[in-house]
Amino acid sequence: MVRAQLEQLADYYAISVHGVGLSLAGQDPPDMAHLQALREVLAWIKPVQFSEHLAWSSHGGVFANDLLPFAYSDEALARLARHIDITQQALGEQILIENPSTYLTFQDSVWRETDFLADLAEKTGCGLLLDVNNVYVSAHNQQTDAAAYLAAFAYQYVGEIHLAGFLRELDGLGHEVLIDTHGAPIDEAVWQLYAGVIERAGCLPTLIERDTNIPDWPELHAEAERAAYMMTDFAAAQKASA
Questions:
Q1: CA angle 121, 101, 113 (to 5 degrees)
Q2: What pLDDT is attached to residue 1?
Q3: Residue 240's pLDDT is what?
Q4: 217-241 helix and 188-201 helix, angle to the nearest 10 degrees
Q5: In this structure, what DSSP letter does residue 92 have?
Q6: What are the backbone angles phi and psi of residue 21, rounded to the nearest 5°?
Q7: How many angstroms separate the CA atoms of 4 and 96, rounded?
Q8: Would strands 206-208 and 158-163 be described as parallel, antiparallel, or unpaired?
């Protein structure tokens, strides 16, 4: 039933497939059986693009069912590049890599995340998926500057943008922590960052993620319309100034 629905949707809409299980940053190379199954899925859906996360989720045959962080080291960069090469060769197409939402910083990291992603794209030919909510969540949690992060991003590699909502919680010390849940409306601060992204990158395919607390259609549609209007306004301003 799901397959039939997707095939019908693909006749009318451009579909983007978003993966969560390749564990590209893991120590183990991508599972070839997984890649073959994924290739078959992509063959019948025929999506405009496929994306995965800058994270790991399995080790030694054990799957953690989570997107786990790692230190941005030279070793990690080389390992990820190998795994992305394997994946792109197996799938026969370019993939996009998404910036993560993070809650801590590794002392062993020697790369800024924006530089790490840019170098990864340059080495492998992969594209990037810019999740603006993840940028805001990470910057808040680690007390860094989201605007500075976005100013340093390699927009020439970006093929898709994501927007989402988050949950506010307090840690054991009473500090506010933002949790990337995809279960709330897009925060106004994220909308403002998105406006800046459009000014730098232009109008790119934008996906609004909702995994939990799914609201009624009018609320979802209003967020989609807001993103569409922002891109339309930018395109009109560009045309007027040309």
A1: 40
A2: 58
A3: 87
A4: 30
A5: T
A6: -125, 10
A7: 26
A8: parallel
Counting Cα atoms < 13 Å in the Cβ hemisphere of 68 gives: 16
Domain count, the chain: 1
Which residues have C-beta within 8 Å of that of residue 75, sequence separation ≥ 6? Answer: none
- Per-10-residue mean pLDDT, the chain, length 242: 79 90 94 94 91 92 84 98 98 97 93 98 98 98 97 98 97 93 97 97 95 94 97 90 78
User: How many whole angstroms separate alpha carbon 197 and alpha carbon 232?
Assistant: 14
Q: Cα(240)–Cα(179) distance, rounded to whole angstroms?
A: 40
**Domain residue limits at 49:** 2-241
Question: pLDDT value at position 64?
Answer: 79
Helix (H, G, I), strand (E, B) or coil at 26: coil
Q: What is the pLDDT of residue 61?
A: 80
**CATH code of the domain in which 45 resides:** 3.20.20.150
35: amino acid identity, one letter: L
Q: Token pair for residue 29?
A: 């190379």
Give pTM, 2 decimals: 0.95
Q: Where are the alpha helices (DSSP H) in 159-216?
A: 188-201
Q: Could you give the angle at which helices 32-45 and 74-91 cross, rounded to 10 degrees?
A: 50
